[in-house]
């Protein structure tokens, strides 16, 4: 039975083994069998495109378009690249690494940065906080070694801008970066403490003003840290001083300097701006006005109000007592004349200018009141009146010379619109024969003696100044009384009552005569251009004729005018050289000398030297020598034309008639007037030949031949035929230039044409 059971079980076991092997074979066959239906690559692409179109999935294309990347995958790859670049990568560098276009990368980067606080997008670069921490660690090591680093240096080391570096480092101060930032520099605490100690020690030892630039240069300080540290030390009271304009001044020096200024000002009552400039005060005037509010600022000095009050008191007393004052003892000697005037103007009781002026400054330091000067003027008037009553005012040559010397500085140049009073020059004593003789007039001597007797304590300098003021007054009073004597004496002299010798009329005649001289000189120049080889000879004849007539007359009138001004009585009209010489001897040398020089030029060949002599003497003799302008010249030519035509219309002398006709023809043709002698008529007539019709020129030439015969009639009898031609030809000759009659115009002095048979 046991065996039977066993056989049965063996059979069942064999069946099971056979069934398992079959199953394995079938499974293997199934695995090895090929699938009949499968998806192709095209189907996959179409399926993916369909999913993208329906929006079920989002992908990004690669640059070659053969691959797709999902946003999640793109983010992973960007983060992987940031980590691979150690926390800093430029967005543009991701394009080749990811094989993606820049636009989707930039959008994804912005999204990543927004969602991740550990990332920053700075100027196109992705920077992690870890990267900035590493920068701070590296800079901290450098900072601890060197003590200071500039922000520019730190930024340049990592190729970053200071706008990125500075905020990042500020955020890590005290945590990663052990130091502090100030004005673009990074410092360690030990470095700044050493700086403070150095600066404190250096400036504590300074006792006089020192430039900050020299300290920075000598010790190699950094300018910004140096200035900020210095300001903190001064503000905290650790350093006793201040700096301005790059100059440090310790208080010990400033206090000493202020004590010196106060001491000097209180002792001397003044101080100069130059002294303060040497003490390095750039605006001394403003400083002193703030330091001493009651003081007075002058041009170069600053004075105490006490000096003004003292000066005002002394001057006020002088004004009330009609006296004078010497302010030299009251004011510092260093004050200039202009500053003394400023002091006087600051005095309440003083008025220096205008009609209400009550004092006059004399010789810088002396002040004379108006009442005192009025008393002096009264003294002069009394002395002059007394001398006139006693007949002590004479007209001797010596006294006249003294008057001229006194009046010389006050004379103005003629031709000016006004005159200015010029202080009289100080008269110095002259030594004659070993003796000292004061060259002052008897009137001045008398006035001066009275002043000294009345004011024995008057300083010599002040006395001289008063006499300078009184000198014009003395001269004026003396002239008034002398003129009265002269008029009284002249009233009995018939020769001195003629109008032509009066100064005013003479000067007017001289002015007209000088204008005519200039006009005729221009005519000579115009005529000289017409002459050929005989230019010099013919011009010389006209020049001599002008000197002999008009210039000689001007010289004569000038002598008469000067004699009248000096109250010298002349007993002749100066028609001869002897009379002129005698008259010159009666005039003062200062006047007669230039007159003699002018007279010498009358014998010259050219009138130009006569003009030069007049110009050199113009200021001394007060001559009005005005050049001709075009308007005046035109007026004179018109006057001469009318005058000559008037004279011609009434002329009966054949020679004078011919001369007037020739001059008028020349004036008409050349627009110049000439002053010619009779012997030059033929020369002038020959120059008009081309400008005149042939019959007219023949008429003039024939008449000129008959005039020559007429002039020689005294030597030989004039035949009746020639005389008849002269009389008959006179009217046609006049008709050549006369048209419509002549105007009645006064003939200017020197223009009357008289025939000179030369």
UniProtKB/TrEMBL annotation:
Biased composition (Basic and acidic residues): 425-435
One of the record's GO molecular function terms: ligase activity
UniProt keyword Nucleotide-binding, yes or no: no
Keyword line: Ligase, Transferase, Ubl conjugation pathway
Domain E3 UFM1-protein ligase 1-like: 505-627
Biased composition regions of type Basic residues, renumbered to the chain: 412-424
One Gene Ontology cellular component annotation held by this UniProt entry: endoplasmic reticulum membrane
Transferase among keywords: yes
E3 UFM1-protein ligase-like C-terminal domain sequence ranges: 633-735
A biological process from GO: regulation of proteasomal ubiquitin-dependent protein catabolic process
Residue span(s) of domain E3 UFM1-protein ligase 1-like N-terminal: 20-288
Region span, Disordered: 388-449
Family, similarity comment: Belongs to the UFL1 family.
Record's protein name: E3 UFM1-protein ligase 1-like
UniProt organism field: Planoprotostelium fungivorum
